[in-house]
Amino acid sequence: MVRRNTRLDLVRSYALRNGIRSILTPVERFLTIEAASGIVLMVAAFIAIAWANSPWRTAYADLWRIPIGFNFGPFGFEHHLDFWISDGLMTVFFFVVGLEIRRGIYSGELSDRHRAGLPLLAAIGGMLLPALMYLVLNFGRASQVGWAIPMATDIAFAVGALALLGRRVPPAMRIVLLALAVIDDIGAILVVASFYSGSLAATGVAIVALGISAVFLMRGIGIASRLAYIAPGIVIWAGTYCAGIHPSLSGVIVGLLTPVKPSRVVEFPDNSKERVTTLPRPNTKMASPAERLQNALHGWVAFGIMPLFALANAGVPISDIDFAGDAKWAFLGVLSGLTIGKPLGIVLLSWLAGWSGLIALPADVGWRHVAIIGMTGGIGFTMALFMAELAFDPGPLLEATKLAILCGSVFAGILSLLAGRCVLRSP
């Protein structure tokens, strides 16, 4: 009996050890890539601003207006380069976001309601208060439509800011920030789908339904090749475009449809101690399709697509910005929402939930850590720029808003670094 219990304990220990590894490894890999990506994003944004304010500013503006498309008999499809970046390549970005949401809900930071309580309420506070502050300043103006811009958090810059604080940041604090950013992304996706998409066209909705049905059918008959799913993905993209939904959201749809269960299962032997202790480590073939796709694409998104999007959208010709009229209020709304609304919303709703007993802080995370998370939440950048492009047509409102995003994100990043070095102690 003792020998049998020993074998069972070994099996359970192996399962627990590798179960923990299966959760932590994707998170650690994700955070590492995002932290490094923040540096590349910062360089791309700096190049864009310098280029847009240099003697070659005309070349910068003309580059993104290059027409790209194709013709096939009577059918043709042509758009400017900035469309293919924002509506084409960013679809891959949203696909990875969808994969991360799917993983987080299934087996990650959002899979347990006790662990998800703090980031969920913090994210809700961090979305509601900035939007409210913007609306207070812009109510009744043409700029009112940009209320969602200061709601977003840029995970790459936020994780990068925490990485600069080194060992002052406990692992649980990074997990809370990651979960908050994932929930933020869910909120942003819902806002884009609900408020920044046109009226739905029945034909487009039918095409989307056809693409989704094709994915389920292919999954049902056991098609495992990732390349095979590109075709229904393109169908879904075309359907969202025709339906009046922002086509990049098709990436989220496909990401959420991706299986999260591993295609192979580890069998634990129960008849030999030696066989238990010599089991091989799980390999990538045992990872789920969602995890394999995320591993394959995350680097391309973090170091290619996001910096390219920043290069195309962060170039604000500062000398040409006109703060007359509504542009001034849009600027103030975004700036105050990111620098004041975000941290206050995150901290206040988290504190109220903790005071009322709805949540409990994770081990090694105190209210000073929550305050730093709130400050880093004010780094909006990528998603905020994306929202601004959807909310405003090219012109003074868009340029003033972009400048506010850049200023607010820089201020939030510097403030979080200074505050972190002052209030967080090194172990």
Show the helix and strand layout.
Elements lengths: L1 H51 L4 H7 L3 E6 L2 E6 H27 L5 H26 L16 H10 L6 H25 L6 H19 L9 H14 L5 H9 L15 H5 L11 H25 L12 H30 L11 H10 L4 H11 L4 H28 L4
Antiparallel strand pairs: 1-2
What does this structure look like?
A hairpin with a 2-residue loop joins strand 1 (67-72) and strand 2 (75-80). Helix 1 runs parallel beside helix 11. A two-stranded antiparallel sheet has the order 1-2. It has a single domain, classed as Na+/H+ antiporter like domain (Na+/H+ antiporter like fold), CATH 1.20.1530.10. Helix content is 70%, strand content 3%. The protein has 15 helices and two strands. By secondary structure, the chain is mainly α.
Q: Give helix and strand order, one letter per element, not per position.
A: HHEEHHHHHHHHHHHHH
What is the average per-residue confidence, as pLDDT, rounded to a whole number? Answer: 81
CATH class: Mainly Alpha
What percent of residues are in strands? under 5%
Radius of gyration: 23 Å
Q: Superfamily at the CATH H level?
A: Na+/H+ antiporter like domain
Q: How does the helix and strand content classify structurally?
A: mainly alpha
Describe the main β-sheet briefly. Answer: 2 strands, antiparallel
The order of strands across the largest sheet is 1-2
Number of strands: 2
> Terminal Cα separation, in Å?
44 Å
The geometry reads as: globular
Q: State the domain count.
A: 1
The helical percent reads: 55-70%
The appropriate CATH architecture is Up-down Bundle
Per CATH, what is the topology?
A: Na+/H+ antiporter like fold
Helix count from the secondary structure assignment: 15
Poorly predicted runs: 7-24, 265-285
